[in-house]
Structures are given as C-alpha cells and as structure tokens.
C-alpha cells in the first residue's frame, strides 16, 4: 500500500475573447459583445452506505463516487459526535476508518468535494450490527518493533478455511506500506494462509507497516473476522543469505553479496532427506527438545542447542556435536542441517528471523506452505496467487539493482500483532 493518491480537480475552461481592431467604419458608440462563457460542468457526489442503513459490518467503508470535483474532507462521527480518523483508498473509491467501528452503534458521515471554486457536500448515516457469533481467528507473523531479515514475508493466517469467493474481499483489507517504497503482491498459499512479498528481497533498512483490517469483515459462510492487527517492523541493515550445497556438504554465508564464512554440514540421510528450495528462518531457540516418541520412524527425545526453524515439518539448522565427524562428508540427520557447536553459535549470533536459506541438490523439493515458502516461487508464479487483479507494472517488473545497506526511514508506530501458530509436526534432527 503506497501513499494515497490525491484527486485531480477539474476546472471549467473559460473562453477568452481577444478584441480586434475595426476597419469597417462602425459608429463611435458601437461595442463588440463578449461571447457567452460555457457553463461549468455539473458536480456530482454520491455516498454509501445509503441513509439509515442498518446492521452493517464494523469493517464498513465510506464509498464515494464523485464527478468534476475532488474530495476535500470526510468527517465520520459516532453517536456522541467523536470523529474517527481515516484515509482514502488509492484511486479514491472509498474512505477507510483507521480502526474498526464499534458493534451495535450509529454513525454519521459528511463528505465535501470541490473543483477549486465551488463545493458540494453530502451526508449519510448508518448503524452497525451486533457482534457476530461465528468469528474466524486471524494472526500475523510480524511483530511490532522487531527486526527481520531481507526475505521476511508478511504472513496472515486464519483458523478456518477462507472460501475462494471471499478471498478478494479479505485481500482488499490487507494493507502494507514500505519505506522506501517497494510494491508487492499477496499470494494465497492455501485457504488458511496468505503471504505478501515484493519481486525481490526487501532493501536493507526498509520499514514495514502492516494492517490486517479484518475485524468484523465478512469471510463467507456467515463468518466474520475477529480482530484488526497492526505491526511496524524493520528489515536489518544488512542482507544475510545462506546457501547450502549437498554436493560439497557446506553452508556458505553471504553478507551483502560477499561470502564471509563456509562451514561443513550434514544433511538428511536417504530415508529422511532435507528439502531443497529457498526457505526462511522462522524462529530461533537457544535450547529446545526434539521429541519424536509416538511418531512413525526413529524414536528419540534429545536436547538441542542453537536451533533455527526452517519448516513446519521439523527441519532446523542446529548444533549437532555428535555428527561433527560426518559434517562435510556424509548425510546422517533426520532432515535437519547439522553443524558444529561453534558454527551453530556463530550462525545464531549473526542471523535474523527472515534471513533466506537456500538448500540445493538433495533431490527432494520443498513442499509449498511448509514454512515461509514465498521465495521458493518465481515472481511469475507468485503473482498468480493473488485474488485481486495485479497491476500490469507488477506482472513483469524490471529487476532492481542489488541494494546497498541504507538507514531506515521513519514509520508510524502501531499496536502489537498477535499470531496464530499452526501445530507443526515434531521436529527431526
């Protein structure tokens, strides 16, 4: 979501009559008469909801249709006269309150438009519905004030499937602003997850401001969104990328495009291979327990240090002192990337949640949606997952020059975002 576009003003053009010298011998008292000016174009302004409409969702927007004028002001007030701030949609089709409205409440709105010389004002009023019984849980994997790696997607999840018929409406209420500006697209990984990214990794130092404005939004089958969620987060000032090659069984670490470290690794053995593809570090834990008791296959329960999650299915980068002799030589893990204790510490201290990790050559492709898999799709594939039309300029964007680190620009603060966490499979090691 970029900066909101202002309406242009349509001004009436006035014909200008230029007097000509007389050569016909008219009498001294004759005067040339001015041609009549054309009437200014008629202004029109129509609003929705229509007057006194009842039982509307608390996600209601003020629809505005205007001709021969531009919107000058929108004043939305509750029953006590308290004004509610908001902003126009890009293109000016509607005005969106900055927060959800209250349930079972009455509102009035007055809109003024002008062509620079004349103004037209219209008003309407409406009331909202009672709080619905059937609500869909929503969550966002972006937390206020956090710093993330350059591949961190914006991920919004739902506790229930969103039908295809409702996805465009849901997507239209998901707003992302980036500073500096980097346009992106939403992609439905499934009916329970939608993901946002740009054509390329975020520029280092980018500020992401996100609003999932879903409280009270109809989501199909008589269900409504549970909450609005907001977060403003920063992308790290450096681009850190991990490339893992099964061919030589090493992890290469690149900082701003320059290789800074290489370390031996042991990947998943033949019966439990690691996934090949571009993943994103999802979570970091200094210590955790891997427990597969009760699961098919090998049974174990072991304490793990310096673990960084890559998939919901249980693939991690982590310290594995028991496999140091195998690292760089053979694959012996249950799917994870085993490194030495010292290398695990170094990675843990230098990486961010949101850093990209690309594994090559294992022969098993990363499963779509098994983690933050937005970057495992080409841009051409990614844009196909939007429920809304994608602007032409984003269908085939010009590749950007690799960005250099830059300081972050200011962004407005917002409330903390809650997350809905799927129930991942037990991790493997």
UniProtKB/TrEMBL annotation:
GO cellular component term of the entry, any: extracellular region
Gene3D superfamilies: 2.60.40.3710, 2.60.40.3780, L,D-transpeptidase catalytic domain-like (2.40.440.10)
Coiled-coil regions listed in the entry: none
GO molecular function, one term: peptidoglycan L,D-transpeptidase activity
UniProt keyword Signal, yes or no: yes
Domain of life from the UniProt record: Bacteria
Domain L,D-TPase catalytic: 240-360
List of catalytic residues: 318 (proton donor/acceptor), 336 (nucleophile)
Region (Disordered): 396-429
Comp. bias intervals (Low complexity): 407-429
Pfam families xref list: Big_10 (PF17964), YkuD (PF03734)
Stored PANTHER family: L,D-TRANSPEPTIDASE, L,D-TRANSPEPTIDASE YCIB-RELATED
Protein name, entry field: L,D-TPase catalytic domain-containing protein
């Amino acid at each position: 979501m970029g900066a909101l576009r202002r309406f242009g003003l349509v001004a009436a053009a006035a014909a200008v009559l230029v007097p000509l010298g007389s050569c016909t011998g008219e009498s001294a008292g004759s005067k040339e008469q001015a041609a009549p000016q054309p009437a200014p174009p008629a202004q029109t302004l129509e609003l929705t909801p229509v007057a006194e409409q009842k039982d509307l969702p608390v996600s209601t927007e003020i629809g505005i249709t205007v001709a021969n004028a531009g919107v000058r002001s929108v004043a939305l007030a509750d029953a006590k006269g308290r004004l509610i701030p908001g902003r126009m949609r890009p293109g000016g089709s509607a005005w969106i309150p900055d927060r959800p409205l209250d349930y079972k409440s009455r509102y009035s709105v007055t809109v003024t438009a002008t062509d620079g010389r004349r103004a037209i004002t219209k008003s309407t009023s409406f009331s909202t519905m009672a709080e619905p019984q059937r609500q869909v849980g929503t969550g966002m994997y972006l937390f206020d004030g956090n710093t993330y790696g350059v591949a961190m997607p914006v991920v919004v999840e739902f506790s229930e499937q969103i039908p295809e018929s409702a996805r465009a409406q849901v997507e239209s209420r998901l707003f992302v602003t980036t500073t500096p500006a980097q346009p992106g697209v939403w992609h439905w990984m499934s009916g329970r997850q939608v993901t946002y990214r740009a054509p390329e990794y975020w520029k280092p130092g980018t500020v992401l401001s996100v609003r999932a404005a879903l409280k009270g939004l109809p989501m199909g089958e008589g269900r409504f969104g549970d909450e609005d969620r907001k977060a403003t987060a920063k992308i790290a000032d450096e681009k850190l990328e991990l490339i893992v090659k099964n061919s030589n069984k090493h992890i290469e670490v690149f900082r701003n495009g320059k290789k800074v470290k290489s370390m031996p690794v042991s990947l998943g053995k033949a019966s439990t291979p690691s996934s090949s593809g571009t993943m994103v570090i999802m979570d970091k834990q200094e210590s955790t327990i891997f427990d597969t008791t009760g699961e098919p296959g090998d049974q174990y329960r072991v304490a793990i240090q310096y673990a960084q999650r890559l998939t919901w299915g249980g693939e991690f980068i982590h310290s594995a002192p028991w496999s140091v002799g195998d690292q760089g030589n053979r694959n012996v893990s249950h799917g994870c990337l085993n490194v030495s204790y010292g290398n695990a510490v170094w990675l843990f201290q230098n990486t961010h949640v949101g850093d990209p990790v690309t594994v090559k050559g294992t022969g098993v492709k990363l499963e779509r949606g098994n983690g933050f898999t937005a970057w495992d799709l080409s841009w051409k594939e990614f844009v196909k997952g939007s429920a809304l039309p994608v602007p032409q300029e984003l269908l085939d964007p010009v590749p950007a020059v690799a960005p250099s680190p830059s300081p972050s620009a200011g962004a407005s603060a917002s409330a903390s975002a809650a997350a809905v966490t799927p129930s991942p499979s037990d991790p493997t090691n």
